[in-house]
Design brief:
By secondary structure, the chain is an alpha/beta fold. The chain is built from twelve helices and 13 strands. Strands 1, 2, 3, 4, 5 and 12 form a six-stranded mixed sheet that branches. The longest helix is centred in the N-terminal third of the chain and has 24 residues.
Length: about 325
């Protein structure tokens, strides 16, 4: 074979090898995450996922649970997202048909009560709802100790809570007050409270001293404490609901295989350890991940028999009634 012919043959071999390998590199693509927590929260998992899958581009869209589920519903004919991250279980139950059943490779790591029967979602963390108190504004001995205490007229103008139509955690707070005390308490709490559009503002407003009392997930209290804010968490005397938020694959999303990879990662011990660490302080839905340092041991917390199925079933009616209560304030 002449030198030129040998060179051409070698070049052809190299090109063919490159074409053979191309599908592997091109198949990496992207994955779109609808994140119901802070931007920093979503980015932490994107970074850890990319350490394992560096060629998959992770796009994160962060917003409140209500906004994200409204978006998923509006996009149902042509979904734009792949994964719902850390959204309330109540919302997943209410819109279960929008999510794709998938048995995760980590399925055996979760107890049955922490995963959907059809595997449309998996439990992620346990955001226990508490009262957040600014201890500079209210001495510990005088602080409200129970859900029912929030209805006391002496707290008028001193409470902040998020709109349950826009926040999954705020809806859980509403549902728990309703299951324990009914609408009379909620009506009085609304009279006493400032209703904000963001669950983040509901705890930040207490941390900055703008409000004395707020309703929030306990992890937010410890996040503020780690920043040196004068706040404490009060687990309500009647009990708080033993509930969890969840992750799931959006049905018909644009990147189904990458969505499975990302969900398997979110279900891993590594991902749950990130969620339990500083600065997120979340209780994991996995038994093999220790609670965040500083959080009250789960065994010392009083729970009541919170009916998450009822909360989801009644959500539309409850939100309509809540809007009427706000309008009559």
């Amino acid at each position: 074979m002449r030198p030129r012919s040998a060179f051409a043959a070698a070049l052809a071999t190299l090109l063919l090898a490159g074409l053979t390998c191309a599908p592997t590199s091109l198949a990496v693509g992207r994955v779109v995450i609808y994140n119901a927590d802070t931007v920093e929260f979503g980015e932490a998992f994107a970074k850890a996922f990319n350490s394992q899958h560096p060629d998959i581009k992770v796009e994160i869209i962060s917003a409140g649970v209500g906004q994200l589920f409204t978006r998923v519903k509006a996009e149902a004919a042509r979904p734009q997202g792949d994964i719902m991250l850390a959204a309330s279980k109540e919302s997943f139950i209410q819109m279960a048909d929008l999510f794709q059943p998938y048995v995760s490779k980590r399925d055996a790591d979760f107890p049955e009560r922490m995963k959907d029967k059809e595997r449309r979602s998996y439990g992620f963390s346990m955001p226990l709802q508490v009262l957040i108190i600014n201890t500079t504004l209210i001495p510990a001995a005088e602080a409200p100790r129970a859900w029912k205490d929030l209805g006391d007229a002496k707290w008028k103008g001193k409470i902040i809570m998020a709109n349950p139509a826009l926040s999954g955690s705020a809806y859980a707070q509403l549902a728990q007050m309703l299951q324990l005390h009914g609408w009379p308490l909620v009506q009085q709490v609304v009279k006493n409270a400032t209703i904000t559009s963001s669950s983040k503002l509901a705890y930040q407003g207490v941390g900055t001293g703008e409000f004395a009392i707020g309703l929030t997930g306990e992890e937010n209290v410890f996040r503020l404490k780690s920043e040196g804010r004068p706040v404490e968490a009060v687990h309500p005397a009647e009990g708080t609901g033993l509930r969890y938020d969840a992750v799931g694959i959006i049905k018909g999303g644009p990147n189904p295989e990458n969505a499975k990879l990302f969900l398997d990662f979110l279900n891993s011990k590594e991902a749950h350890t990130i969620a339990a660490g500083n600065p997120f302080f979340r209780r994991s839905a996995r038994k093999d991940v220790a609670p965040p340092p500083g959080l009250k041991p789960t065994g010392e917390i009083k729970f009541f028999d919170y009916d998450v199925e009822k909360a989801a079933r009644d959500k539309a009616a409850n939100l309509k009634k809540f809007e009427e209560v706000m309008a009559a304030k």
